[in-house]
Amino acid sequence: MGPMKTLNGEEKMNDHDTRHNLQKFPDSAGASNGNSADHRIFQPLSAYFGMNTFNDQIMREKLPKDVYIKLRDTTKKGAKLDLSIANTVAHALKEWATSRGVTHFSHWFQPQTGLTAEKHDAFLELDEEGAVIERFKGEQLVQGEPDASSFPSGGMRTTFEARGYTMWDPSSPAFIMEGPKGGILCIPSLFISYTGEALDKKTPLLRSMAAISRSAMKVLGLFGNRKATRVVTTIGTEQEYFLVDKAYYQKRPDLRITGRTLVGAPPPKGQQLEDHYFGSIKERVLTFMQDAEHELYKLGVPAKTRHNEVAPHQFEIAPIYAEANVGADRNHLIMEILKKVANRHGLALLLHEKPFAGINGSGKHNNWSMADSEGNNLLEPGRTPEQNLQFLVFLVAVIKAVHDYGGLLRASIASSSNDHRLGANEAPPAIMSIFLGDQLTHIIEAIRDGKGARATDQSIIDLGIHNVPSILKDATDRNRTSPFAFTGNKFEFRAIGSSASVSLANTVLNAAVADSIDILVGEIETALSKGGDLNTVVMAVLRKQIRESESILFNGNNYSREWAEEAARRGLSNVKNTAYALDMFIEKKNLDLLIRQKVFSRAEIESRYHTKLEQYIKEVEIETDTLSNMIETLIVPAAIEFQLRLISAVKGLKDLEESLGGVSYKSQTDRLKALTGLIESVETENKALVAMTGRAESIGGISERAKFVADKVVPLMSSVRAPVDALELIVEDGLWPLPKYSEMLFVM
Ligand code: ADP
Ligand code: MG
């Protein structure tokens, strides 16, 4: 997502002279939310869970039975929406919503940049007599026309069609977003051009889920599963974030404008003590969390786990997993609600991947699996050899997918903010690899070495495959450094940024896995047609595929330099920044995959490639502008103020020298020299940064410009930062214009 805007739109810098006064926010301990707190105490969660969603129970109540059944087929079984029911559904939705104080509706969708977009329309019409009536027609439910001309499309809409429209996605329930004076009925929607090109992130995600279903069903067929009617991908997102007191946040233009601190000296106490993780949650934070969860429960988001994270003031929230499209929507809701509720509590919620240099950044573990329509997790090792063979086919397909399309996966999580984690000295690294754990690695190696070649039931048992379920879950230890880890019955894609939408990463992952499954199934079917027994054929195909893909497997410390060198020898993708990573979208092999799996058209990929390049350039530009501005209007003036004080101290001491019979002012002059030197460095480095930013603007090609920004501009930001951080350590505390790390991260 782009640089974060201020939390409540328009927050100006407060008075510079009263430093960081926390008392400004009397309700910061959540006292103003007494009412909803009471609610929580006296009502069981189940009493209000989902009350703001148009859920199954409400649908059944409010809709005629035949309409309800048709709609349920759409939402539950993925059937095509029957347009003849739209009017009835719209009417019921409006009745339900208005009875709950809703005045407006909005198609809620995921544009290519930012998180979600909405445009509110009142349920308001005038009848022939000019009297006001509340009305919501089927066509308004099914299709909306936002004034979409200002959403980025990477040039696509100029090529195709000037306008796009939003379309109801009935697979995700409509919900009410409460507002101070009446709620808004949000209708989860797709955003497409009139020629059918996807302008959003969700349409491709749904297409990729269809691709998985198509391919995985073939595997189920091979193993004789005739019950399942479709396969879905499931995701559970572990959302990390930081909280800082809003009074601090408001005094940091960098945090407000870019979402991260662009300067700031390391605090005396960092995370060396590692005492925060799973520590007890401070009351102020707990109050916020409970309030946020209360809102999420009303929206039907099953927030399950909360805890402190590794860094000070860093936390995590994770819901129970859901089908990928619903899970992605919910993650957007989680991010929105967290921000909104934090604001209410006098806190600023930071979703940026690296808000504080030298302190662990935030990510979003994307737990991913596939399930059939009977609810069976396809990455759950089975109880019988046959089930385990099917499990191994899916497992190897994922290994192959990450091996073949590691670069594309890297591109799917690329953003200027995520570069601070992936490209820097932090786990997970930019190198794609898979962690399987010892147990499974053992099995995979045995298959590779042909030990299971005979594949009788007995030989599968000999391999230990038979026993997989009992040991696997505990055997996959917590390798926290791996970007893509198997954790017992699901994979965890850990390299997604905390501020990102998970849609694109899942889209690419699904497409790659679907393709691998297709290839495996193709090879199995070919061998079967030549007459072989299923077990033996499957084992042979697995063996071949493992040999081709095993370089992606790595169980060690992903953080080490040895791994970077080893990965280079293995030829694994290791692209440090977005400007270069994005090129992988348009690499022929990757383009072919996405088109072959019908997830994107060529134009759609190219449009995303351009939009993302543009966004990268803009985000860095906003950062450099913000940094320069802070230096000129805050940092250098404060340093000069201190310089003046030192000068007058030196002068004063000098004047008194005789009368005092000799005095030393060496320490003051030393300080003055150091200070003056640093001010000079800041000014020089800042000039260089401004000049380099200017040069970047003159570069014509967008990809070339992005690379120039990555290679030349971004490093200069560190050069500017170094003397600024040194200044922070010598300028008088009362004069320093910005809240320090030691305050933001340790005071709440
Ligand atoms: P761990 O702490 O071992 O990573 P958890 O059980 O806490 O695992 O799960 C983390 C996230 O993974 C949660 O959001 C959970 O709902 C989700 N999850 C569990 N099973 C699946 C699955 N089959 N598919 C997708 N996500 C899953
Ligand atoms: Mg986890």
Describe the fold and architecture.
- The relative contact order is 0.11.
- With 748 residues, the protein is an alpha+beta fold.
- It starts with 33 loop residues before the first helix and ends with a helix.
- Strands 9, 10, 11, 12, 13, 14, 15 and 16 form an eight-stranded antiparallel sheet that branches. Strands 1, 2, 5, 6, 7 and 8 form a six-stranded mixed sheet that branches.
- The chain has 26 helices and 16 strands.
- Helix content is 49%, strand content 11%.
- The structure holds adenosine-5'-diphosphate and magnesium ion.
- Residues 238, 365, 492 line the site of magnesium ion.
Topology:
Blueprint: H1 34-42, H2 45-48, H3 56-62, H4 65-77, H5 86-98, E1 102-108, E2 120-122, E3 125-126, E4 132-133, H6 138-142, E5 143-144, H7 156-159, E6 164-168, E7 175-177, E8 183-193, H8 202-222, E9 231-245, H9 246-250, H10 253-258, H11 283-298, E10 303-308, E11 314-319, E12 322-323, H12 324-344, E13 347-350, E14 364-372, H13 385-412, H14 419-422, H15 438-448, H16 457-462, H17 468-475, E15 484-486, E16 491-493, H18 503-529, H19 534-549, H20 561-570, H21 578-581, H22 588-596, H23 602-656, H24 666-697, H25 702-730, H26 741-744
Helix pairs in contact: 8-18, 11-12, 13-18, 13-19, 15-19, 18-19, 23-24, 23-25, 24-25
The structure holds adenosine-5'-diphosphate and magnesium ion.
